[in-house]
Design a protein that fits this description.
Elements (H helix, E strand, L loop, with lengths): L1 E3 L7 E3 L7 H31 L4 H29 L1 H18 L14 H27 L5 H34 L6 H15 L3 H5 L22 H32 L4 H18 L3 H7 L2 H21 L3 H29 L5 H30 L1 H24 L5
Antiparallel strand pairs: 1-2
Helix pairs in contact: 1-4, 1-5, 1-6, 1-8, 2-3, 2-4, 2-13, 3-4, 3-6, 5-6, 5-9, 8-11, 8-12, 8-13, 8-14, 9-12, 11-12, 11-14, 13-14
């Protein structure tokens, strides 16, 4: 453990993988690898590939929206599978399913045009099943693989490896189509280089299986960890208030999360490599800004951070809505990524402090359900909005939703003692 002290600053604690248990190290490495393949390269390329297949923004919105709702439906079943059979076993199955789902998407290049609208949804259902099975079990698995004394550092390391993996994957994914196009003598508008790039990033993600197989325990919680708590009455008002806020805010964020890459590709004419570079710069900033949260929380509080990050999201989307230029898109996307990095950790702490200990799991379940609902609703509606009114109208909607979310969270934060 390395601790850096600077005058007037909080200690910066830099953990290393070597200080954790063998199983914890394997889990953290696995999450970093799958983040690079799926959250980084594949997430960047799939929208651009579907556009080159001739699919519309409305179709892409439906693709993401239905996948989001399906992920929500898998939450309890996937958790129950991990509890019944052990998280190690189901995570291995989930990783293989995720790889199969990613490999299925490029099949759209080889099927008849009448089937090209079917293959992405088949891919999405298989991929989402695998990703849900893996990710939903990874967090409780790390809980079992760590002790209270090192758990906070382990989760910080997990977040750092996820961010680093996503960054590297995004940069690699952005460069691959151009490289394949030059080798094959194809145009950047041809879907074939993107199809082969998707195959390559799927193969690059397969090493995730190795650390999962090397886990020595089944990673089931010990029996004494299931002791029921005296929870008291259910805190309905805090749960409902935060769920409404999260739905509104996440719906606003989704306007960029799903549609910024297609916007920069089709409207601004940026190459895939440039889009990957711009996204990667924002991811670096997002990784770094997380370290500011402890000091901001000391000076203010977590509720204040949530409000400010939501306001920053609204301002970033406003830049995208008002200025149709690559520089504005770059700054707007950077602001969206930084706002997201500040938002989720601060929101999690704010909600956990607001609720009785015995109801925290259910409360966070409601929060994630609200996230998925906001993401799914905007993904479905946003594509149709783009087709009929353009990207500017979509980003304007994001501004309105984000601004409303900031005002709602400011009210919740001020009235925190009452709720």
């Amino acid at each position: 453990m390395v601790t850096m002290l600077r005058p007037g600053r909080l200690p910066l604690r830099l953990p290393s993988l070597g200080e954790y248990t063998h199983d914890a190290r394997q889990l953290i490495l696995a999450f970093g690898i799958i983040s690079g393949s799926f959250l980084g390269a594949f997430s960047l390329l799939r929208n651009l590939y579907m556009l080159r297949l001739g699919l519309t923004p409305a179709y892409i919105g439906a693709y993401h929206g239905i996948g989001s709702f399906y992920f929500m439906a898998l939450g309890l079943p996937c958790g129950a599978l991990g509890q019944r059979f052990g998280t190690r076993r189901v995570m291995i199955i989930g990783a293989w399913l995720a790889a199969l789902g990613m490999a299925l998407l490029p099949v759209g290049q080889m099927v008849a045009p009448t089937l090209r609208t079917v293959v992405p949804f088949v891919s999405q259902f298989v991929l989402t099943t695998g990703w849900a099975t893996f990710s939903i079990n990874a967090v409780p698995a790390l809980m079992v693989a760590t002790q209270a004394s090192d758990r906070s550092g382990a989760y910080a390391m997990l977040s750092a490896l996820q961010g680093l993996g996503t960054l590297v994957g995004t940069l690699v994914g952005g460069a691959l189509p151009g490289l394949v196009a030059r080798i094959a003598g194809r145009s950047a508008a041809d879907p074939l280089p993107f199809a082969w790039a998707l195959v390559l990033v799927t193969v690059l993600g397969l090493p995730v299986i190795r650390p999962l197989v090397r886990i020595t325990g089944g990673l089931r919680p010990p029996p004494d960890s299931r002791i029921a708590l005296n929870r008291g009455p259910f805190p309905l008002l805090p749960v409902v208030a935060i769920a409404i806020y999260v739905f509104v805010r996440h719906a606003g964020w989704t306007t960029c999360a799903v549609f910024c890459s297609p916007y920069m590709d089709t409207e601004l004419g940026l190459t895939t490599a440039v889009i990957g570079l711009v996204t990667g710069i924002g991811q670096v900033a997002a990784i770094l800004v997380v370290f500011a949260i402890p000091r901001l929380a000391e000076r203010r509080n977590h509720g204040w951070i949530v409000v400010v990050s939501t306001a920053l999201l609204a301002l970033s989307l406003l830049l995208l809505a008002l200025v149709p230029h690559w520089a504005a898109a770059t700054l707007g996307l950077l602001g969206v990524q930084v706002a997201a990095a500040l938002w989720l950790p601060a929101l999690q702490v704010f909600q956990m402090e607001l609720m009785p200990e015995g109801w925290r799991a259910i409360g966070y379940g409601a929060l994630t359900t609200a996230m998925g609902s906001g993401y799914g609703a905007t993904s479905l509606f946003g594509g149709y909005l783009v087709d009929n009114h353009g990207y500017r109208a979509l980003f304007q909607l994001g501004v309105v939703l984000s601004a409303a979310g900031a005002l709602l969270m400011a009210t919740i934060s001020r009235r925190r003692p009452q709720i």
